[in-house]
Design goal:
The complex is a heterodimer of chains A (about 500) and B (about 180). In chain A, the strands form 4 sheets. In chain A, strands 1-14-13-17-15-16 form a 6-stranded mixed sheet, sandwiched between helices. Chain A has a 4-stranded antiparallel sheet with strand order 2-8-7-4, with no helix packed on it. A 4-stranded parallel sheet of chain A has the order 11-10-9-12, sandwiched between helices. Chain A is α/β, with parallel strands linked by helices and about 500 residues long. Chain B has about 180 residues and is mainly α. The chains are: A alpha/beta (about 500), B mainly alpha (about 180). The interface between A and B is large, with 41 and 33 residues.
């Protein structure tokens, strides 16, 4: 098949994927303790609805939500809630998050599950609600609530794209899922297609995964609405906008969504999760995670319950090698460093990469920018990283925005090719969060100004009211004085009359 | 000659009328520069600048009565934008010992006697309560100005620094390696 479309920039990276695809997906058991964070998605955190000491069943909702951009959290196994406390989160900051700690009873007892009527009979909005209630988020790593993505809001969706590119080195969880459980993905695709009322579904897979392509193709042959497409191996072709460009040749507008082109992109693992949620009434309580890198003895893919400590997974992958020194959740390009292996698996954990000193460039080798322009050549969104770097350094937030900082997908290509080893993406993340911080501060100060102005007005009004009251009182007392005088005068007159009378009598 | 004088006078008269009309018709209420300056200030209303709030300080800045380096909560960032807006030189912060840690006022409830003094002191009406009833701070509205602390007769108001959590955390500025100059 001819493939005329490519996106600008990008890199050919060494895959390192074979090391973790040699063994089938291993089902991790129930750990001793489950640490289930309440905030595992983009949006507002879930609110805990269980109490310490309460017994919960597998799949029972333990965190509920009220805000729109949020999904509930469920108990991954049956057991007792032993505490709700702060615990290291799988977050770039390493700050603690609210976590429900469950001690499993080992029975793995499900909450009541009722089989659903035929999915195709259901209304798309009902489907979206069920997908939301199952706590499903994008499993590619960003963890954005899926039900929002399945809402076409006024667009007629032409194609649903399922992203099986998995372009980042080391990660192979989607590859293994496609190899071993293609039917789950296709059943999920059916449901998503119905929810979106989409015409076609394309599953896009990088050429370096022939087994995955074959296993899906075998099932897709009988389905006229489904197309399996293999795409060239260029990082970051798995980025939503890059994938759209490769498949359709169209550019998603700056700061826009594929929805603007009547397309929706979801991860293949998300489709499988949707299938489990609707066809088996199983909310998102487990996921496949690649445990890999030169820092573990036997890299492989593991299906683990959400809340399982990363240290358990390391054990299942044969334990650390001697010189393992850094844990990364996600891939080497976009992942975040974890401070401790006690951090639990969350919905966004697609990979646990254990590195050794040989894998990373130390910061001491950073050199000044020589304006070589290598970063511009590789940027897949046509930004000017070297310019953004200067603006970020000088905290010039306005220029950062006019140079489209928010189109940066933080793929890390620029950092990799920089001959001066400048951690460019870190500068861009810093710039983005400074702009967000500024926005929040403006909202807060605007409120404070409104309240101060309202208070000054109120104080003035109260003052004026008091003044008016005093004036009225003064008038009243004055009036009272007049009346008093009148009475006194009347009394005096009466007295005078009386004395006159007595005088008359006397005479 | 006469014609020239006449036509110029007529023109001058017409323009005068036009300008007079526009100054009435398009009159701007208030002081737009003071509004702009006010919008650059952090609105903590703390009075550390010596003025009774952010707006009075903004007005004093416009008239040139105040220096641009008096806002402690705003810090260097505010000095920089004020210098740019007002066309003045950047100055170091006036009170070099003053450090501003974003904080929230918290009333220790068991000690509160319900005197309402803090309620009267709060510039943003962020404390609720009534006479002889316990008072409490509306967290979202508190600017951390500390003005409620001195009036409290029983010292029951604490200023607690706002802790960063995963929702408010921001990426730090990357540090350059030692010896590297750009």
């Amino acid at each position: 098949m001819a493939r005329p479309h490519t996106f600008p920039g990008g890199l050919k990276l060494e895959g390192h994927k074979d090391i973790s695809t040699g063994q089938p997906i291993l089902k991790a058991g129930i750990p001793e303790r489950l640490f289930v964070p309440l905030n595992q998605h983009i949006g507002s955190p879930a609110e805990c609805v269980v109490e310490k000491g309460e017994h919960v069943l597998k799949g029972q909702m333990i965190g509920s939500v009220t805000d729109y951009v949020a999904v509930p959290v469920h108990a991954p196994s049956s057991g007792t809630v032993i505490d709700i406390q702060k615990f290291p989160a799988a977050h770039a900051s390493g700050l603690p998050n609210d976590v429900v700690i469950i001690e499993p009873d080992g029975k793995d007892e499900w909450r009541e599950r009722k089989p659903l009527p035929d999915i195709t009979e259901l209304d798309p909005s009902e489907l979206r609600n069920m997908i939301r209630c199952a706590g499903i988020v994008g499993l590619g790593g960003a963890a954005f609530p899926t039900f929002i993505k399945l809402n076409p809001v006024g667009h007629k969706i032409s194609t649903l794209i399922l992203n099986g590119a998995e372009c980042e080195p080391y990660i192979s969880c989607d590859d293994m899922l496609m190899r071993e459980r293609p039917h789950e993905i296709i059943d999920g695709a059916k449901i998503m297609r119905h929810a979106l009322n989409a015409g076609k579904v394309i599953i896009a897979i990088e050429e370096n995964k022939p087994e995955a392509i074959d296993s899906l193709q075998a099932l897709a042959d009988d389905l006229d609405w489904l197309d399996i497409q293999s795409i060239p191996v260029i990082y970051p072709t798995g980025g939503e906008k890059q994938l759209v460009k490769v498949l359709t040749g169209k550019d998603v507008p700056s700061q826009g969504l594929p929805l603007d082109l009547d397309l929706v992109v979801n991860n293949v693992a998300t489709a499988a999760a949707v299938h489990l949620a609707l066809d088996h009434q199983q909310p998102l309580i487990s996921r496949i995670i690649t445990v890999t890198g030169s820092g573990v003895r036997s890299p492989r893919n593991i299906e683990a319950l959400i809340g399982t400590p990363m240290s358990d997974l390391i054990d299942l992958a044969g334990g650390y090698t001697e010189n393992a020194d850094r844990l990364i959740m996600g891939g080497p390009m976009m992942g975040i460093t974890l401070k401790t292996d006690a951090t639990p698996v969350v919905k966004a954990s697609n990979c646990l990469l254990v590195q050794t000193p040989a894998d990373h460039i130390t910061e001491a080798t950073t050199r000044p920018c020589i304006r070589c322009g290598e970063c511009v050549k590789v940027c897949p969104v046509k930004l000017l990283p070297q310019q953004l770097y200067w603006f970020s350094q000088s905290k010039n937030l306005e220029e950062l925005q006019t140079h489209n900082l928010f189109d940066c997908i933080e793929c890390g290509c620029c950092s990799v090719v920089c001959p001066s080893h400048i951690p460019l993406v870190q500068y861009f993340r810093y710039g983005k969060s400074e702009i967000w911080k500024k926005e929040q501060e403006t909202i807060k100060s605007d409120r404070a100004r409104e309240r101060t102005e309202a208070r000054i007005k109120r104080l003035e009004r109260v003052k004026a009211e008091k003044k008016a009251l005093h004036a009225a009182r003064a008038k009243k007392t004055a009036a009272g004085n007049d009346r008093k005088k009148e009475i006194e005068a009347a009394v005096a007159r009466a007295k005078a009359k009386k004395t006159e009378g007595t005088e008359n009598l006397d005479t | 000659m006469i014609l020239t004088i006449l036509s110029l006078s007529v023109l001058a008269g017409l323009f005068g009328l036009l300008l007079g009309y526009s100054s009435v018709r398009f009159r701007v209420e208030g002081d737009p520069l003071a509004d702009k300056i006010d919008s650059l200030l952090p609105q903590t209303q703390c009075g550390q600048c010596g003025f009774p709030g952010c707006r009075p300080y903004a007005e004093a800045l416009v008239t040139g009565e105040a220096e641009i380096n008096l806002c402690v909560p705003g810090g260097e960032d505010t000095i920089a934008v004020l210098a740019e807006t007002l066309g003045r030189e950047v100055l170091p912060i006036s009170d070099e010992h003053a450090s501003h840690v974003p904080a929230l006022a918290v009333i220790i409830e068991e000690y509160c006697i319900g005197c309402t003094k803090c309620i009267q002191a709060c510039p943003v009406d962020a404390i609720v309560g009534a006479a002889k009833q316990m008072h409490t701070v509306i967290e979202n509205e508190c600017t951390g100005c500390e003005l409620c602390v001195p009036p409290c007769p029983v010292d029951c108001i604490d200023m607690r620094p706002i802790k960063a959590d995963t929702s408010t955390w921001a990426w730090p500025q990357p540090q350059l390696a030692r010896g590297v100059r750009n």
